[in-house]
Amino acid sequence: MENYWKIALVACIFLVSLFSVRKLTIGRYKKEFGPKRRTLWGQRTFYWEGLIGLSTGVTFLILLLLKSGTMLTF
After folding, report:
1. 72 is a domain residue
2. Closest C-alpha among 2, 1, 10, 4 to residue 67
3. What is the pLDDT of residue 6?
4. pLDDT tens-place string over residues 13-31
5. Which has the higher per-residue pLDDT, 22 or 1?
6. CA distance 58 to 54
7. Model confidence over 38-58: pLDDT tens digits?
8. Structural domain tally of the chain?
9. Could you confirm whether the keyword Transmembrane appears in this record (predicted)?
């Protein structure tokens, strides 16, 4: 049962970091690519691919900090 809590914690941290990074970058993305170019699948795929990669890195860093602070044990 303890593993389920760890998986749920990681999923929550990932979703929160994904939402936070998206809120920080969506304005620049909308300004850089106009409304017509944003509807192209290639532009959207590029944006979301980078967003997921960056959020994965942020999640990894948060988990590393939690582990080094002995708040989380693996």
Report:
1. no
2. 10
3. 86
4. 999 999 999 999 999 988 9
5. 22
6. 6
7. 888 888 898 999 999 999 999
8. 1
9. yes
DSSP, collapsed to helix, strand or coil, labels residue 57 as: helix
Angle at 10 between CA 7 and CA 15, to 5 degrees: 125
The reply to whether 18 falls in a domain is no
What residue has token string 């532009």? 43
Q: Which domain holds residue 29?
A: 24-64
> Sign of torsion, CA 11 13 16 22?
negative
Number of neighbouring beta carbons within 10 Å of residue 25: 14
How far apart are the C-alpha atoms of 44 and 35, rounded to whole Å?
12
User: Residue 18 is which amino acid?
Assistant: L
Collapsed DSSP state (helix, strand, coil) of residue 9: helix
